[in-house]
Description:
The protein is an alpha/beta fold. The protein has two domains: 3-94, Arc Repressor Mutant, subunit A, CATH 1.10.10.10; 99-312, D-Maltodextrin-Binding Protein, domain 2. The chain contains eleven helices and twelve strands. It has helices spanning 10-22, 25-32, 36-50, 66-94, 106-109, 112-123, 136-144, 206-218, 231-239, 249-252, 285-303; strands spanning 55-58, 61-64, 98-104, 127-133, 150-154, 162-177, 187-189, 198-201, 224-228, 244-248, 260-266, 270-278. The strands form two sheets. Strands 3, 4, 5, 6, 7, 8, 9, 10, 11 and 12 form a ten-stranded mixed sheet that branches. A two-stranded antiparallel sheet has the order 1-2. Helix 8 links the parallel strand 8 and strand 9 (224-228). The longest helix has 29 residues, at 66-94. The two termini are 51 Å apart.
Amino acid sequence: MDWSAFNINLKSLECFRAIMATGSATAAARHLGLTQPGVSRLLGVLEQQLGFELFYREKGRLIPTEEALTLHPEVELALDSLERVTKLARGLKDSETSALRIVAPPSVAEGILSDLVSRFLARHPNVQISLDSHSVETATKMVALRAVDCGFLKLPVDQPGLTAQLLFTASTVCALASHHPLAAKKTITAKDLENEPLILLGKGRHSRVQIENAFAIAGVKMRVQVETHTIAAACAFARRETGIALVNETLAQQYAGESLVFRTFVPEITHDYAFVTSAHAPMTRTTRKFFNFCTAFFHSKRTNPASPATVE
Length: 312
């Protein structure tokens, strides 16, 4: 039936459904929180719009006509559908029923991002998170193709069609066994690492080139013992005294402990990470909420690095 042709009042349909369920205008009024005359008036308006009667009276009860019995399933379906739409819209407004797709390199996903997402979900428990862990190249393409809502990527991002907003900057540190002689120093230079076995990541990457340049400027030949692709592996080797690892402090922090310590590497080599989205579409409401949460999270860490990050 084309409801628009009748311009039917929603409240009238709700009254009709309530009467069908309860059998009387009085009971329907109680169910809807209306007066009995109000229900009768709305029913009369509906019958006038439809052009036929929906009920006849028998011993104080309203008995549905054949037309009412035919109409009832469609009214139930229409009202149920409207309730689902209303609930979905309310959920979207309040971010109660929403999904967020994120991509990041493994070192980010397994470290700082896992903490960040857990804190966000504590605030928004009904948001469904999908977190993909891929290489920088794959993660960048996924954001560009809008296969995900956002990504955590290291700058610079060499891919057109993306918007990158700086989230945090991390320094480079030396990860080494706690009883290593160099652990007594607050900072470690390239000169200090002469003849030391090194554990390095990201051959060909910008940060690796910066490390190599630092050694070249200091006139120190690098003794690379292990090449690896993950911070977790680099820290594991350093803990086992295979060598000294040069790693991103923020991403490596979770691996620190009694047997593994970090010391600042000089000259300073930084790593910039950004919240990356497609430039061809606006952020969804949930993505925007997550971005604002991330911004507050890292701002809190910068202003009070000694304490766990808090987000108001």
